[in-house]
Write a structure and sequence with these properties.
Elements (H helix, E strand, L loop, with lengths): L3 E2 L1 H6 L1 E2 L2 E6 L2 E4 L11 H7 L5 H7 L2 H6 L4 E5 L36 H28 L5 H9 L2 H5 L10 E2 L4 E2 L5 H11 L5 H6 L2 H13 L2 H12 L5 E4 L15 E4 L5 E11 L7 E8 L2 E8 L4 E5 L11 E11 L3 E2 L5 H6 L2 H29 L1 E2 L2 E2 L4 H30 L2 H7 L1 H26 L11 H9 L10 H14 L7
Parallel strand pairs: 1-5, 8-11
Antiparallel strand pairs: 2-3, 3-4, 4-5, 6-7, 9-10, 10-14, 11-12, 12-15, 13-14, 16-17
Helix pairs in contact: 5-8, 8-13, 10-11, 13-14, 13-16, 14-16, 16-17, 16-18
The chain binds protoporphyrin IX containing FE (HEM).
Length: 510
Amino acid sequence: MPRKFTREEVLRNNTKESLWCIIDGRVYDLTEFLESHPGGEFVLLQAGGKDATIDFYNLHRQSVLEKYSDLCIGGIENEEPQVIRHNPGDLSVVPYAEPAWLTPQFKSPYYNESHRQLQKAMRVFTETYILPEAQEKEVSGEKISQALIQRMADANILGMRVGPGKHLHGRSILNGVLKGEDFNYFHDLVVTQELVRATARGFWDGNMVGMTISLTAVLQHANPVLKEEVQRDCLSGKKTICLAVSEAFAGSDVSNIRTVAEKTPDGQFYIVNGTKKWITNGTWCDYFVTGVKTGDGLSVLLIERSKGVETKAIKTSYSAAAGTAFVTFDNVKVPVRNLLGQEGKGLKVILSNFNHERWMVTCAGVRMSRIVVEECLKWSNQRQVFGKRLVDQPVIRAKLAKMISLVEAMQAWLEHTTFQMTQMSHSQQSEHLAGPIGLLKMYASRCAHEIAENAVHIFGGRALTRTGMGNVVEMFHRTTEFDAILGGSEDIIGDMAVRQAVKKFPKSML
Ligand code: HEM
C-alpha cells in the first residue's frame, strides 16, 4: 500500500535537508534529486513543502514523472490523482488527437473491425518496442537494432510495409490479428500512421523506409528466382535494401542520371560505375535498387554490397539514424540476372512504386501533423501566461482552429484517395491516381509547413530546443519540409499532375 501523508506533513519538509512537494495528489521527495534537477536547485527549493502541480505541468511532460517515479514516496490522504496516465496502446482523449474513425462518436465507411484490431496491435507494438528505441537512436544517430528488425519481421510488420500483395499471402500478422490475404491499403495506412507515432523523424526513415520504397521493384520486376531470394532475405529481417536513384547530377529528373552499367563481352555481367546521393538507409544496406544508364536508356539493377561498393554517411539536418548515404560504385560486377524489368525500360520500374511511396509519405506526414496539433492543444491548455492559460487567448484559439481544419481536410482527402486505391488495379492506379496522389502529397506538405509554423509560435522558445516540452514541435519544424522533396519535389509532381490533366482535356471543349 502506498504511504499516505497530510498536506501539513508535506509542508514541514521544505528545506535542503528534507525537500518534498506535491504533484497531482502524489508526494515527491526531491532531497536527493536537488543537485541533478535539469531546471536547477533554486526552483525546487521554492516548491519545497508546497503543491507544485500547476508549476510542474507548466514546464514538464507527464512522462517526466513516469521516468522519475522512484522519487514518489506516497499520496495525499483522501485525494486521488487527476491526471490521466497513458498506457501502451491507449487512444488519446484529447479532442482531434485521433482521426475521426478512432473517435467513438464518429462513423466511417472505410474501416472495419480488422482495421481497428490492427490499429490497436500496432499502437501497442509501437509504444512498447519502437518508441523507446526511436527516441534513443534519434539522439545517438545509431542504426536501428537487429533485435527490433527481427521483432518486426516475426510480426510480419516488414511485409506490411511494402503494401498489399502476394508477399503477404499465407502470413499471420501480429500473432493472428489479421491474415495477410486480407491486408488492403487501409491496413497499410493504419500501419504507417501508427509507426510514425514514435515521433523521431530520422529514425522513422531509418526504420526500413528504404525497403518500403525499393523492395516493391524487386517483387514486381525481378526474375522469379531472384525475387524469391531477396523477398525471403528482406522480409525475414536478414538483409536490408534501399533505393539508389538520385545523384548529385539528378534528383527528380531521374532520366538524367550518370551512373553507367556496361555489359561484359561475354554478356554475363554489368560493370557499374557512378555515384548516388541522399540514399536513405544506404549507410548500412545490403542491397541497392539502382538506376543506371545502359546505352541510351535507363535501366534498374539490383546491386549487392560487394567489391567496389562504398557508402559514406552524409551529414544532414536530421538524425544519422536515417542512414542517409553517398554511394560510390567503382567497377562493380553485377550478374545480368539482377536486371529488374527490361533493359532500357527502367523508368517504368522506378515509376511503378512512386504512387505508393508518395502516398506513404503523405500518410506519415498527415499523422505527424496531427501529433503536433495534439501537442499544441495540450500545451495551450496547460501553459499559463499573464495569469491565464494560453488557450484563453483568442489569437491562440484562431491558430488551433486553422491547424485542426488543415489536419482534418488532409485526412479526409487521404482516406478518399486510399479508397480509390483499394478499388483499382496497379495499372489503373498508375493511369488515374498519379496526378491526384501527387496533388495530395503537395497539399499535405504545404499544410504541414503551415502547421509547423503555427506550432512554433504557440510553443515559443521551447520550439527551439530538442529536449523538454517542445521537442516534438522542434523536430517537426526542422524536418517536415523534407516531405516536400522526398519521392519527387512537390513543385515537380504538382506540375506533373496538371500536365497529365491537360493531356486528358477533351478537345471538344476547346
Ligand atoms: C518530481 C519532480 C520533478 C522532476 C522529476 C523534474 C525533472 C525535470 C526535468 C527532467 C527537466 C528537463 C526538461 C524536461 O525534460 O521536461 C526539468 C526542467 C525544469 N524543471 Fe523540473 N522537475 C521536477 C519538479 C520541478 C518543479 C516543482 C519545478 C518548479 C516549480 C521545476 C522547474 C523546472 C524548470 C524551471 C525546468 C527548466 C524548464 C525549461 O527549460 O523549459 N521542476 N525538470
